[in-house]
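Supplementary Note 3. Input sequence used for the single-chain structure prediction.
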Amino acid sequence: MRTDIPGGLHATVAAVLPGLRPSDAKVMRLVLADPAFARSATTDELAARAEVSPATVVRAARAAGFEGFGDLKRALVRDLATQPGAAPPEQLTETSTVSEISELVLTSHAAGIRATGATLHPAALDNAVSLLAPARSILVFGVGTSAAPAADAAYRWTAIGCRAGAPHDSRTAQLQARQLRPGEPLVAISHSGRSVETLAVVDAARTAGASVLAITSFASSPLADRADVVLVAGGPDLGLQMAPSSSRLAHLAVVDILHAAISFADLPRARHALRIATEISEAGSRSR
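The predicted structure, written as discrete structure tokens, is reproduced below.
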């Protein structure tokens, strides 16, 4: 677990929250909401405030990836050292001014992308590149706020020589997913990992024997359970449905990471495709 990255502890714990039992999640939400209290509290004090048993506090810490409550407290201290004076992400309210909205959104988006380094596991990234780089074709799908990262991924990867497509509707995507060859990749992008349309496409791909790469905000979800490779990257919740928006930026950053890695995996192919893209762009400029 990376807690040496600013915001890394918050991002890591937030990513596993949906997979925790309710009482454990209650403890960890309190830790995220008031890390200063959690750093100084005893097991009994934290249990009393969370209205759970002391044993639940220890279990919650272990379920979140720590060796115990003491290990969690040490991680909170290290996290504070990486961002002195930082406060937990605020939420937008009806009294927020435009200036405050601007400052909070820009700051939280930047922090979310930086903290993604704590939830992206190098081994998972290596597996993702190994899956995508040699693929004959890549199917990408996302709905709602995940549709834009899906479209961007398909275009960016096509521009470096991959045959990638991102159909807009679930029915078309399911048809294409069922026609994938065994081992060919579907990249499913979803903030929650619970979008019905996305899961239907994933199930169609699995029926065909295809491999599934998930780019999502949570380590535990129906999508993560179905995927062969999971890349976790999320953003803070500022209220007003802003969590999916923040996560979209983190997901775009993951797309960029994969774009660069796939390019270097086959530089001749990438350079050939980029030359074609340049020719098309120049031809378009001359015709105006």
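The first helix runs from residue 8 to 16. The mean pLDDT is 86.
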